């Protein structure tokens, strides 16, 4: 038989916790707004998940609406339109990971190599600014730049003897516009965390590498990248959790019916079905499906990271 756990352990832990709270009461007090925010806006709304298992009627409320079990999930998985939306979401997210995930790492390494601090700060300010623009503004900027009616990009194409390109109406090109605009807006901001990680690498390692004759490229490969690997893995695992998000706000303000077949993602689909068709139960089922898949992807990514790199989120 296994020995019983120490009955005083729980009591000792509670006593120590109270001692810690009394010692650092101001820090624990500062936690209250954050915890209240989590409870109010993250956990309390989870009660609404039951709508996915009911035929929800807005006038009857959640309590009086009849249970239907897995009906909406069965409809979801058998819906041709949802399968198309699911494929679009995966495609756009995979493109963003392939082309945009490495960019902040590369930019951070390049910025870290700059010796002129005034120039470095100026570059950082310029590349950070787009993050603070809303997608409505960014969408307007790109529409003006890429328009077939006076857009500077198409003017250049015509000046070089080409034909105007319908960037926002061509299904073969629109996903490239989404990826490019997302990169322009967020790459600079995402470099911040990598620059912070670079600041934590021991400068003595670079000095030793120079003495051993290592050039800049070898220093990056053998010192910088290994030093960044923990944060790269962390960001990649977290990014997997947002695979089914695919930039809903961005797509919503930039797409149009001409490109629905390649640009309609889960978020915009939920918006159209939930608010447009007022099918709240089905749209909630889509949201639950998205959350479950995101959770599975995070577990999968963490497992791969632990298997191949020996480290993960847990």
Could you characterize what this model shows?
The chain is mostly helical. 72% of the residues lie in helices and 0% in strands. It contains 16 helices and no strands. The chain has helices at 7-23, 25-43, 61-64, 71-78, 80-100, 102-113, 117-128, 135-146, 152-159, 174-199, 203-211, 216-240, 248-254, 260-263, 266-276, 280-309.
Q: Whole-Å distance between the termini?
A: 31 Å
Please describe the biggest sheet, giving its number of strands, its sense, and whether it closes into a barrel. none
Structural class: mainly alpha
Name the beta content range. under 5%
Number of alpha- plus pi-helical segments: 16
Uncertain stretches of 5 or more adjacent residues: none
| Bulk shape | globular
Query: Which series of helices and strands comes N to C?
Result: HHHHHHHHHHHHHHHH
Number of strands: 0
The whole-angstrom Rg is 25 Å
- Helicity, as a percent range: over 70%
| Mean pLDDT level | 85
Task: Give a concise summary.
Helices cover 72% and strands 0% of the residues. The protein is mainly alpha-helical and 314 residues long.
Fold blueprint:
Blueprint: H1 7-23, H2 25-43, H3 61-64, H4 71-78, H5 80-100, H6 102-113, H7 117-128, H8 135-146, H9 152-159, H10 174-199, H11 203-211, H12 216-240, H13 248-254, H14 260-263, H15 266-276, H16 280-309
Helix pairs in contact: 4-16, 5-10, 6-10, 7-10, 8-13, 10-12, 12-16, 15-16
